[in-house]
Amino acid sequence: MSLHSKKKEYLKSYQENYGAVGQCNLLTGVSQKTFNTWVGEDEEFRDALETLDRSFLDLAEKKAWEKALEGNDTWLWRVLCCRGGDRWRDNTMAKTTAITGTKLVQRFELVDKVIGNDSEKKMIASKTTTTKVIGDKNNG
């Protein structure tokens, strides 16, 4: 089997398995290293993967809308939060735990907006802060 047809086989598996790379690797006999090389070096292959990923997202959004329109409040809320912009964003509760002296303290902060990605969130427009002692080294 040529490399070209192996990539086609991989893309077919990728589509059938909704982008589950590990599963596709097993089914096609392609190693993770080979997959990574193809993604890094073959623009046509990478573009095909991105097109499939967008189609998976479209399908998931369609399913979310269907659930929302069936009257499922949880899915309706998710669709509104994701697609409704700031009008439907929920406030975020941030919880931090720290040791202050001998006390273990939890701090809760309700914020209006969170900016940044998951690894570097910055909170702005803080509304309320609550601190609660949840442990004390001196009292066991």
Give a written overview of the molecule.
The protein has 140 residues and is an alpha+beta fold. It has 2 domains: 79 residues, no CATH class; 49 residues. The protein has 5 helices and 3 strands. A 3-stranded antiparallel sheet has the order 1-2-3, with no helix packed on it. The chain is flat, with a radius of gyration of 23 Å.
Helix content: 40-55%
Terminal Cα span: 68 Å
Class of secondary structure makeup: alpha+beta
Rg over CA atoms? 23 Å
Gross geometry: flat
Extract low-pLDDT stretches: 119-127
What average pLDDT do the residues reach? 76
Number of helices: 5
Strand and helix order: HHHHHEEE
Features:
alpha+beta; 2 domains; three-stranded antiparallel β-sheet; 5 helices; 26% strand
